[in-house]
Amino acid sequence: MVDTVSVTTNDGRNIIGVLKGYDQCINVILDNSFERVYSMSDDVQIENLGLFIVRGDNIAIIGEVPDNIKEQSQDDTSRAPPMKPVTH
Q1: What is the dihedral of CA 22, 64, 36, 25, to 10 degrees?
Q2: CA nearest 59: which of 2, 14, 5, 10?
Q3: pLDDT attached to residue 59
Q4: What is the CB neighbour count within 10 angstroms for residue 27?
């Protein structure tokens, strides 16, 4: 399993990393992970997280992304408001 995935959490965070494992509760283990932080006043910020575990009950969306997404993100000058939390 060497797929690069993007995880959007219920609190609006966007975490990207290499999927190393998951379980029946959709808890996921991401390696070489980073978070893309959006704001209206600055370009997209990259926060390196390394090995990271996301609880399945906190995942809103998960999907595969290109392997070179980190290089694309570093050159990203787009600005956007931060995502709002999921409401039930």
Answers
A1: -20
A2: 10
A3: 96
A4: 15
Distance CA 41, CA 59 (A): 27
| Residue 26 CB neighbours (<10 A) | 13
Quick one: pLDDT at residue 74?
63
Looking at residue 39, its pLDDT comes to 86
Query: Which amino acid appears at position 61 of this protein?
Result: I
Domains of the chain: 4-74 (2.30.30.100)
User: Which runs of E-coded beta strand occur in 1-88?
Assistant: 4-9, 14-22, 28-37, 45-54, 59-64
